Amino acid sequence: MKLTVNLQEKSYDIIIEHGVLSRVGEYANLNRKVLVISDDGVPKQYVDTLLSQCPQGYAHIVKQGEGAKSFPVYQELCQKLLDLNFSRTDCILALGGGVIGDLSGFVASTYLRGIEFIGIPTTTLSQIDSSIGGKVAINLDDVKNIIGNFYHPSAVLIDPDTLKTLPERHFVNGLVEALKAGLIYDASLLTLFETCDPKTAIDQIIYQSLQVKKAVVEQDEKEQNLRKILNFGHTLGHGIESVYGLKDLLHGECVAIGMIPMLEDDALKQRVLQIYQKLGLQSDIAYDPDDVYAVMKKDKKVQGDFITVVKVKEAGHARLEKIPTPDLHQYLKSINPI
Ligand SMILES: NC(=O)c1ccc[n+]([C@@H]2O[C@H](COP(=O)([O-])OP(=O)(O)OC[C@H]3O[C@@H](n4cnc5c(N)ncnc54)[C@H](O)[C@@H]3O)[C@@H](O)[C@H]2O)c1
Ligand SMILES: [Zn+2]
User: Fold this and answer.
1) Nearest atom in ligand 1 to 252's CA
2) Which residue in 158, 160, 233, 289 is a FRET match for 207, CA 20 to 30 A apart?
3) Pair 327, 264 in one domain
4) pTM
């Protein structure tokens, strides 16, 4: 399956193909210097499969986890590119989940003011969502993605076979982004979750989710307006993730919690809760509203004294609502008094 993200001169193809990991040369020029960036949780055999296709291939493996999206690791990678004399015509392969995609893309966007990178996502979250859209970033202190860029890969190669080694919890974590895509834009995705086993329907789930993201990003690449709907569940989710995520919760798990209060229809809420139950996702958590609010105030979606939140009343349709930031504090207290 192939999708093309149409962004004039920055357009690129997304290939969804079993076994594409061992056929990267069919879609990208590997006859140049290539740095494979990955982390130590990604099976080494995937790194070796890529390196075996690159005559001038190098690998840099960082420690797995959100902590890799940091200035020290960013600097380490830039230093590696410099030491290896990478030029603008060379290339980075980002092999891993959303952490590796965000980090490698940010490195690619800034080294020499931009070198080519190809996304090879290996988690459900990155195959369904984070590998397309051009948002690349690292974190600073406890604020996620606060240092970043819009920078697109030259191609994204998705091999669903890589998901076979992904731990179950991470598999489910990524499915939350597909549920989000369904809720904001494509109600049939929701039905797919209700009627199918996600493991057997994973190719279709990836394809339909990427279609949603592609459609939204093509209409609003730099998040002036429509693209904000992709943040559904993320405003609250990011707040929770920043406060608790590094300890216990994954990105998708936080987004799952963040989506529930933003559903404006009880019947729809019940449908979503049933899907959570089927997937084994929790729908709420006791959090300290003051801590979460403190982080949310630094969110990129805050403009002056207002913050834009995304709400869904009917499956497949989202709306934006600009609310005074202090109201959000009150709201957080009211939905989660501890
Ligand atoms: N740029 C965007 O648009 C965007 C969108 C959503 C999320 N994100 C970011 O994505 C990140 C989360 O991504 P994630 O959930 O993929 O987490 P992750 O990148 O940390 O990967 C999860 C874990 O799975 C391991 N792993 C990866 N592939 C594997 C495989 N095939 N088999 C076995 N283990 C494997 C990794 O080593 C890691 O330990 C967050 O930093 C979030 O901010 C970015
Ligand atoms: Zn997300």
Assistant:
1) 15
2) 233
3) yes
4) 0.92
